[in-house]
């Protein structure tokens, strides 16, 4: 959530232990050399933040955080339920000093209920939220459920948390009052299982996994077709529209590959999907053979010209080479890393939205405690001597860039 808000222009301060956040130890690392300040995982998830590294097990450390929160708009946290309250940083106490404060807690199972203290992570959220149960293969008997690649559980819950937090900010604009938000990663994932829950509630049916397409209570047409250059095409809504289906048959016939699909019985494939699955299976195999004899780009360009919602199954790296994303849309941005030398920058995935009045101005993730001193001095008016005392006693750590 903090990264999303920071990339949109908010000032975000990351509060981390004096030795650095645990996520700094997650690889891969720059040059494959483990270092808490060069975790690529941490870089990607913590752009546009400042860092104060401070000991929350100390009275002085808690005092500093309370002072910061007296003037803060939002406090984001993901500690185990009850921990912050036990050290004097619960919302009830903080809101007395700052009634407009919004505090958002993002945990695995929420702040109450029998699961509130259960351990969780991205995989657990995807598994227990029902997403993994919906992902897998229907053409591989007894195949296990599969998690989506990437930290989808984390991203889903963070985006839901952000939506709630921004809504609370709107509410505060009208009322002047802040509030507390309790966000559950499990519930966030569970809310994105599409038709699964309503299908069970209203039809008493369970959906099943389907290869390369949405889960369903009834089979839907296959979508994955291999191309002559070894790639795959998503062939979506193949039989949903008669005009589209007939234009596809015409395209294949022009290449001499329509076989018998010009016969009258294949004209209304939307009806035949359920009434005659043998016909639809045969039609799909003819389409699959047609696609197998062309490159992915040939099929993709041809399909788009005919207004089909088809696409190439790409690796994430392939998008880096596409001028549409790289140059025309500027999806991938260079961000400076002065700790490695003047003018040194690395490419990052940008934001998938464009504010016409406020251009994206993200900056790299912070070093451990990189801003501890400036925050204490500029925001809280601590003296140099007071800051030195905090450093000497191990209450804060401060790492500076060496030029």
From TrEMBL:
InterPro entries listed in its UniProt record: CoA-transferase_III_domain (IPR050483), CoA-Trfase_fam_III (IPR003673), CoA-Trfase_III_dom3_sf (IPR044855), CoA-Trfase_III_dom_1_sf (IPR023606)
Gene3D superfamilies: Crotonobetainyl-coa:carnitine coa-transferase, domain 1 (3.40.50.10540), formyl-coa transferase, domain 3 (3.30.1540.10)
Pfam families named among the record's database cross-references: CoA_transf_3
UniProt KW Transferase keyword: yes
Keyword Transferase among record annotations: yes
Molecular function terms, GO-annotated: CoA-transferase activity
Keywords per UniProt: Transferase
Protein name: CoA transferase
Transmembrane segments: none
């Amino acid at each position: 959530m903090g990264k999303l808000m920071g990339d949109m222009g908010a000032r975000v301060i990351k509060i981390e232990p004096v030795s650095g956040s645990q996520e700094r130890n997650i690889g891969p690392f720059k040059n494959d050399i483990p270092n808490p300040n060069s975790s690529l995982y941490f870089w990607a998830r913590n752009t546009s933040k400042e860092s104060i590294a401070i000991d929350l097990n100390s009275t002085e450390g808690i005092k500093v955080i309370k002072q910061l929160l007296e003037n803060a708009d939002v406090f984001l946290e993901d500690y185990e339920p009850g921990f912050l309250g036990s050290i004097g940083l619960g919302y009830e106490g903080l809101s007395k000093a700052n009634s407009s404060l919004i505090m958002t807690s993002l945990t695995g199972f929420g702040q109450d209920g029998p699961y509130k203290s259960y351990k969780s992570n991205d995989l657990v959220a995807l598994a227990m939220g029902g997403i993994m149960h919906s992902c897998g293969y229907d053409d591989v008997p007894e195949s296990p459920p599969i998690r989506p690649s990437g930290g989808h559980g984390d991203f889903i819950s963070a985006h839901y948390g952000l939506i709630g937090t921004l809504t609370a900010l709107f509410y505060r604009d009208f009322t002047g009052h802040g509030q507390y938000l309790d966000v559950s990663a499990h519930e966030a994932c569970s809310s994105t299982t599409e038709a699964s829950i309503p299908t069970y509630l209203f039809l008493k049916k369970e959906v099943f996994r389907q290869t390369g397409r949405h889960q369903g209570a009834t089979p839907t047409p296959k979508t994955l077709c291999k191309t002559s250059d070894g790639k795959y095409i998503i062939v979506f809504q193949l039989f949903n529209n008669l005009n589209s289906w007939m234009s596809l048959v015409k395209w294949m016939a022009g290449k001499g590959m329509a076989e018998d699909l010009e016969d009258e019985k294949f004209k209304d494939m939307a009806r035949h999907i359920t009434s005659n699955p043998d016909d639809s299976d045969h039609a799909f195999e003819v389409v699959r053979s047609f696609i197998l004899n062309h490159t992915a780009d040939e099929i993709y360009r041809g399909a788009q010209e005919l207004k089909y919602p088809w696409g190439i199954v790409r690796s994430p790296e392939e998008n880096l080479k596409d001028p549409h994303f790289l140059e025309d849309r500027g999806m991938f941005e260079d961000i400076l890393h002065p700790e490695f030398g003047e003018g040194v920058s690395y490419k990052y995935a940008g934001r998938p939205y464009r504010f016409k009045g406020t251009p994206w101005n993200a900056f790299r993730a912070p070093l451990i405690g990189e801003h501890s001193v400036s925050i204490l001095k500029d925001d809280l008016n601590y003296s140099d001597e007071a800051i030195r005392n905090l450093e000497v006693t191990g209450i804060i750590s401060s790492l500076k860039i060496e030029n």
